[in-house]
Amino acid sequence: MGGCCSTDSHHGIKRGGLFKKKFVDKEYEEDEGDDMRYGESGARIRLKGSSGYTSMYTQQGRKGINQDAMTVWENFTGEKDMLFCGVFDGHGPYGHKVARHVRDNLPTKLCKAIQLSKLNSCKYGDVGDDHKDLTNKYGENSSTKSDIDDDKDGQNDDNGSFCLLSLSSSEACFIKSFKEMDQELSLDSTIDSFCSGSTAVTVVKQGDNLIIANLGDSRAILCTRGDKNQFVPIQLTVDLKPDIPSEAERIKNCKGRVFSADEEPDVYRIWMPDCDCPGLAMARAFGDFCLKDYGLISIPDVSYRRLTKNDEFLVLATDGVWDALTNAEVVKIVASAKNRSMAAKLLVNRAVHAWKDKYPGCKVDDCAVVCLFFKDDPTLLVKSSSMVTRRSSIINASEFSLSRRFKSFRSVGANRYFEGDSVIVGVGSKDQEYWTDLQGVSRVNSIVKLPRFLSFRKSTSNLEEVDAH
After folding, report:
1. What is the mean pLDDT of residues 203-219?
2. What are phi and psi of 71, to 5 degrees?
3. Taking Cα atoms as reference points, which of 322, 333, 370, 327 lies closest to residue 235?
4. For a Cys-Cys bond, which of 61, 93, 128, 371 suits 152, CB 3.0-4.6 Å?
């Protein structure tokens, strides 16, 4: 069951360490300190704190128990150059349980799927074909021919990796593991996920390759260097909202409804066919089984990026951060951290202050951040932090084009694939300006109203006053 295995007590890890805080629900209070655990194939698991290349921090908002969760798996699948990281934003009365269950179990499912796929790929010699196709189409950020040939021959790289997984195989592994995770939630009698669920934004890094899988409205951005050596944010994921045309079409085809309420005309939500509930503000999520027959899906949006020497770091965060800060502001804050181990905490603190300044009287949302740095020198970012680009309130959409900087292979369904030069998945290029949501400034609850029956067994009569996040 997942990665909550034995706690490391033999590597000089001090309990009660970096970032202490109290939670409302003692049952789900996180272990204090920069602790480390072991998971599938000996992977080192962190739920908080920092390492040489990562910084993590979460803070409870003002809506009740912290429903955000995060994790980093080093030596993922047992390989030294492979890393998994993810953040998960729960919603609904039991969203904290869903988010933490996904955090603890999804990486294990993905690990097993990747190991099996790599074994089959190396055995039958089909590794690299998808890389070759993308190299011919997209060029510099896809794998080079020499890289492909080396991988296809199954040779070990400097870090001991025995086989680079192809893009289509990686996508299939993510889709398979996300599907299994959702099925497990539907059968788990200890977690009522009928009207509770969680987002997930996850990244697997192997060498210079990133595979990104997104479910919901959490977000991943990358900081790279521009032509003048300035820091430039590149959004790697799309906030999968119900008003994206392809998402809305799917929901409506499944008899679900998508509309905005009079009191919040800019926020589109998913509603059940015959009642104005639950009003979920995202188009994909784990759990929320009251809507799974009406267009809500747990199929992730999967994309690929080949890192270059200009890429500096990656930031994964829940919408508590993105609702208060722009992508450019996030990059500037992380780059300004004097100590990279404190970068995530600094970002969360700035997001909380931004909430209070921009939305006085509004409840601050939970925040969770994972920062992944690509370079050894921790002072590299500090020296150039003053050069962070100062852009207008709307980032030029060309910065997020896949034509040169961001090459992707994406899906909106198990049997439907999209390749192209748009950062939007399942959205036509003419719709891109409407659906990128690059600034991401909103302050709404994920769920508006619970159905009359919270599950097939429980009435919501005693939960009507619950703030469902």
Report:
1. 96
2. -160, 155
3. 327
4. 128
**Distance set, CA 434 to CA 42, 216, 232, 419, 430 (Å):** 44, 18, 21, 20, 9
* C-beta neighbour count of 66 within 10 angstroms: 26
- Can you read off the two tokens belonging to residue 466? 């619950």
**Mean model confidence pLDDT for the chain:** 75
pLDDT of residue 419: 31
Is residue 111 a part of any domain in this protein? Answer: yes
Residue of 119, 106, 239 whose CA lies nearest to 178: 106
Q: Does pTM top 0.85 for this prediction?
A: no
Amino acid in position 60: Q
Closest CA relative to residue 131, chosen from 115, 117, 150: 150
Q: Which two tokens stand for residue 101?
A: 């269950």
The CA radius of gyration of the chain, in Å to the nearest whole number, is 21
Residues contacting residue 313 through CB under 8 Å, at least 6 positions apart: 222, 223, 334, 335, 371, 372, 373, 374, 381
Q: Return the structure tokens found at 185.
A: 């939630």
Position 11 scores a pLDDT of: 33
Alpha-carbon distance values, 111 to 56, 117, 237 (Å): 21, 10, 22
407, 142 in Cβ contact below 8 A?
A: yes
Q: Is residue 78 part of a domain?
A: yes
**Rounded-to-integer distance, Cα 426 and Cα 242, Å:** 12
Rounded CA-CA distance 292/311 in Å is 38
Model confidence band, residue 233 (pLDDT cutoffs 50, 70, 90): very high
SS3 call for 81? coil
Task: Report if residue 445 sits inside a domain.
Answer: no
Please give the average per-residue pLDDT across 222-228, as a whole number.
95
Token pair listed for 65 = 């128990």
Rounded distance between C-alpha atoms, residue 378 and residue 11, angstroms: 23
CATH classification at residue 310: 3.60.40.10
Burial per residue of 27-47, b for 16 or more beta-carbon CB atoms within 10 angstroms, e otherwise: eeebeebbbbbbbbbebbbbb
- C-alpha 110/C-alpha 181 separation (Å) is 10
Which of 204, 166, 188 is closest to 79 using CA atoms?
204
Q: Is residue 403 part of a domain?
A: yes
The domain tally of the chain equals 1
H helices within 44-166, ranges in order? 95-124, 129-138, 145-152
Question: What residue numbers bound the domain in which 270 lies?
Answer: 42-435
